[in-house]
Design brief:
mainly alpha, four-stranded mixed beta sheet, two-stranded antiparallel sheet, 23 helices, 8 strands, transmembrane helix, mechanosensitive monoatomic ion channel activity
Length: about 575
């Protein structure tokens, strides 16, 4: 949308510019940013005192070269200032190199050192680092506004906590060093010693270099990295301000018609064809990645806590089978699941402490069915925690799967929320100025376009002769063929399931698939009955998930023996992971 601020209240002059196309396909990958491009023009040559300020609001960052329709122009008197300087100042963008450098610094290096401090030392300080690490994805994207506010405060908080920890360690070691002999006041298994150990304060006598590095150097490294990050951010952010001040005057005298002409010459038709289809492929790929990550987190360790991911997985599968669009309710549910995953990770980390393992022993029925695994065990007599090497591979992969799921869902949710906030700000500002429109044609266009500033793309695009367009066309063709022949894949999967897992429960799938296959219009019947296939398959998966808990057959107290239960379809492997059977059935 383009908003013109004019001193002449009766000005209705406009030029004919080609309108933007309003496409159909809704994409979540918008990156709505408000950009300011002031310019002056003298549309009425007879009135020398008349001038206009043109402000361009681009719907996408990469669509700044599109030509805007005159129907989307709003003529506003000069005494009205709907877009204040503060609004545009808050949306200033960093340069590409600075943004990439800060992204690597904040989103890769800083989380890496926090993760090192979390893994190699189990204490209350490390628990605080874990909480800060989980907060990082919710801080938003790397923009100048977020860098100056959220990320700067976040890094200062990390530096302050690490500095306090280092100072506390120095004071503690100085106190016990001053009382000769060293550490004679701290006896093993006393309440004071245990409390100090929970905060990472331990005696260092008879310690090797690795133990000293594990106890002290994580805080030193985190403090050093946070200090470097703060210094680099301050230096990097000081550059755009000077450049903006120096470039303010030339930018304000730029002609809008010249800008439109330059943007027209650089805009190509191939980009307009490639971009919508590429976004559509990425959108479908993102949904598939979310489906896979949730399923992996649910199946890697069947338990009560992980059953929430399993339920979410079944809900996604059922919605997909009904061909229902994923709307805002799905986004809200995904945000709640991300928060639940964060709480789950903190609980899992707390279980590695000695007091938690004493309350809920690692080798017990309740610890197995809840999904809490003691990867690290410790006691008051040993100075070093011991790594549990007797666990199966799923016990070690479970926290990694949860961490990947949390970060992916948190980044996705935060991106969608940021886009909605920017879209709402732009929409509200546009709707407030509809009463000031003097051009009736522009007024009708605003009523149609202002409430829906999200770009909608149409899949139906003319053929593209570039190699990128051909690749995207081939991908779309393959996806459409698979979608068209999906009923055959469903019938084959039902037959394979019934043959691989031979039981009375899977016999239903065998009979069902054979019956549909012989019908004259098998595709139509298969699509009609797909919800029932999903419901019955979900029931079998739920049954397999429940018997896949890390328990033995004798602990479940079935009325029948093991062989009879296997003929029915319930097969239990004592204390063995059920990941492979669940994966094959899915």
């Amino acid at each position: 949308m383009q908003i013109i601020m004019s001193n002449n209240k009766n000005s209705t002059e406009c030029t004919n510019i080609q309108p933007l196309s309003i496409n159909k396909y809704d994409i979540e990958l918008e990156d709505l940013r408000v950009q300011r491009q002031p310019a002056f023009s003298h549309m009425n040559k007879s009135n020398k005192h008349h001038h206009e300020n043109v402000y361009s609001i681009s719907l996408k960052q990469n669509e700044e070269h599109h030509i805007l329709s005159m129907k989307s122009l709003i003529l506003i008197p000069s005494y009205t200032n709907p877009f204040s300087t503060k609004l545009f100042a808050e949306n200033k963008e960093l340069t590409g190199m600075a943004q990439s450098f800060l992204s690597v610094l904040i989103l890769i290096l800083l989380p890496l050192v926090l993760l090192i401090g979390i893994i190699f030392r189990y204490s209350i300080n490390s628990l605080i680092y874990a909480f800060l690490l989980l907060v990082l994805p919710w801080l938003g994207s790397i923009t100048e506004k977020n860098i100056r506010t959220r990320f700067r405060l976040f890094i200062l908080l990390i530096g302050l906590i690490s500095l306090l920890t280092v100072v506390a360690q120095i004071i503690f070691q100085a106190i016990i060093l001053g009382k000769k002999p060293y550490g004679h006041t701290l006896k093993n298994c006393t309440e004071l010693t245990q409390t100090l150990r929970y905060f990472g304060l331990e005696r260092l006598d008879n310690s090797n270099a690795l133990r000293i590095l594990r106890l002290i150097f994580p805080d030193v490294i985190i403090f050093a990295i946070s200090t470097v990050c703060s210094f680099i951010i301050r230096r990097r952010l000081s550059l755009p301000r000077h450049r903006e001040t120096n470039e303010a005057l030339p930018a304000s005298t730029t002609s809008p018609l010249a800008t439109s002409s330059a943007s027209t010459s650089t805009d190509t038709g191939s980009e307009q064809k490639l971009w919508p289809r590429l976004l559509s492929i990425l959108r479908r790929l993102r949904l598939f990645v979310q489906f896979v990550l949730v399923g992996f987190a649910a199946f890697v360790y069947p338990s009560i806590i992980n059953s929430v991911y399993f339920i979410f997985f079944l809900i996604i599968a059922f919605i997909w089978s009904l061909s229902v669009n994923f709307g805002r309710k799905y986004t809200s549910a995904r945000a709640l699941l991300a928060i639940y995953t964060g709480v789950h990770l903190l609980t899992f980390y707390l279980y590695q402490f000695e007091f938690f393992q004493e309350a809920l022993p690692p080798i017990s029925l309740w610890s197995n069915i809840t999904g809490l695994t003691a990867i690290v065990t410790s006691n008051c007599t040993d100075t070093e925690p011991s790594f549990n090497r007797k666990l199966v591979w799923t016990d070690y992969v479970n926290p990694c799967a949860l961490l990947i799921l949390y970060f992916y869902f948190a980044f996705e949710t935060n991106q969608i929320l940021s886009q909605r906030v920017r879209s709402n700000i732009t929409t509200v500002q546009a709707l407030e100025q509809q009463s000031l429109v003097h051009n009736s044609e522009g007024h009708d266009a605003i009523e149609q376009n202002s409430p829906t500033l999200h770009r909608r793309w149409s899949i139906e695009q003319p053929g593209d002769q570039t190699w990128q367009g051909r690749i995207i066309f081939v991908v779309f063709s393959v996806l459409r063929v698979l979608e068209r022949q999906s009923y055959l894949l469903s019938l084959i999967a039902m037959l394979a399931w019934s043959i691989t897992f031979h039981s009375l429960l899977t016999l239903v799938y065998l009979l069902w698939a054979c019956f549909i296959w012989v019908l004259p219009n098998s595709r139509q019947w298969c699509l009609r009955m797909s919800p029932f296939f999903t419901i019955y398959g979900a029931a079998l998966l739920i049954l397999q998930y429940l018997v896949g808990f890390k328990v033995s057959f004798d602990q479940l107290n079935f009325s029948y023996d093991r062989r009879t239960m296997e003929q029915i379809g319930i097969r239990i492997e004592d204390f063995q992971p059920a990941f492979i059977p669940l994966l094959l059935k899915v």
